[in-house]
Amino acid sequence: MSQNREQWGSKLGFILAASGSAVGIGNIWKYPSMAGQNGGGAFTLVYLACIFVVGLSIVIAEFVIGRKTQLSPVGAFEKLAPGTNWKWVGYLGVSSAFVILSFYGVVGGWILKYIIDSFSGGFDALAGNPEVAGTMFNGFITSAWNPVIYQVLFMMLCIGVIINGVKGGIEKWSRIMMPMIIVLLGVLAIRGMTLPGGIEGLSFLFNPRFEDLTASAIVLALGHSFFTVSLGMGTMITYGSYIDKKQNLLNSALWVIFLDTAIAMLAGVAIFTTVFALGANPAEGPGLIFIVLPTVFAQMAGGAIWSTMFFILLFMAALTSAISILEVVTAYFIDQKGWSRKKATIQFGAVITVVGAFCSFSLGGGINITEFLGMPFMDFMDYLSSKYMLPIGGMLTAIFVLKKWGISNYLAELKNGMGEKNFPPQLVKAILTIAAAIVAFILFNEVYAEIFGKALIG
Ligand code: PHE
Q1: What's the pTM value of the predicted model, to 2 decimals?
Q2: 144-156 pLDDT, tens per residue?
Q3: 180 C-alpha to center of ligand 1: Å?
Q4: In this predicted model, what pLDDT tens digit does every residue of 289-333 receive, in sequence order?
Q5: Measured from the CB, is residue 320 less than 6 Å from ligand 1?
Q6: Structural domain tally of the chain?
Q7: What is the residue with the minimal CA distance to atom 7 of ligand 1?
Q8: Residue 40 CA to ligand 1 centre (angstroms)
Q9: Burial state string for 399-436 with b = 16 or more CB within 10 A and e = fewer than 16
Q10: What is the CATH number of the domain that holds 144?
């Protein structure tokens, strides 16, 4: 462990950075569109259960492993289990970071383009007309260079933050952007609820209609709970490695989970109240944000202002997540290879940007390996990471604590900063076992479905 490892400046700074990682495109784009397509309130209920049962226990485990070792994932597993294969869980995390950031950066670029378009009044012509909005969006993302230019811009911002380190980059920008996200979303949610008919959106989001609760929605909610809390690839191990021994990790983890959930709900409220008030289709899926919302905002008084606000907050959410993904890669090269932060950030930021450009090209910009993968490369990267890499990483992390590191060692580290509090080891063991078992079941179900063409459930 290096004596001069960077540390967070304060507990609040750490909580804002970690919740900044958690709150991202997953909360504001993926969650509302998934809820819209899977029965609203019923989906929300399962999602909440997954976050609290599986998500919370694995966030805490990642924080504890990071703080104990003061190292990013590969070094952390190597230190706690020297000479074993557990370090591969760390390598899996670093690989997941490559995969996720490559497509995340592309979506980040789309958001930048939408900020500019909404600000310049480019959505005015879309009022109430999803066909035109759809053609515009699809035309943009399937063109060759235009989306790549925005993606490169987004990645440059991401590199610009990470190059300045933990306190001067990640913490500084999270402190600025997280409060802004909450305020802007709050304003948009209030605006939505005060629109005539907006309240209907609330009952869509929160009224559980159990007849809509299909088994596949349950599987989807479970997978999403990893993505939304940034679990299973060592992001929280890396962020945890910059914490000092005085911090109460249970309390910090509860804050991160609470903020992530509250912001997803608030985004759902802001979006569905507005969509219902203006009579648009709530079940649009992925097109909800980039196609339906621009048509809806354009119908409102001051629409350009509301939509610019929305895309700015989405951009900030995406950036505070993207930096946490790049930090996993950067920290690996600093910790394990002795590189300077600057060299690691620029070189691997550039490599990921190039892979991301291929994601973008795969949507129609010329280079197409869709036939080989069965879907565009961009969707493949999303599918691979959310459905397999993150759940496998998360499950192995829980198994590592249970089988290799040991509950008593784990609890000894967790207790630092918590005063005299004692945790019953059996209970902790039971919770981690349940979390790992649930994930193992989803993975089994997925693989079964891939092989036999039909899931056991779903
Ligand atoms: N949690 C982020 C989101 O919801 C995505 C993310 C996944 C970030 C994995 C870091 C690691 O958008």
Answers
A1: 0.93
A2: 899 999 999 999 9
A3: 19
A4: 898 888 888 888 888 899 999 999 999 999 999 999 999 999 999
A5: no
A6: 1
A7: 230
A8: 22
A9: bbbbeebebeebbebbbbbeeeeeeeeeebeebbeebb
A10: 1.10.4160
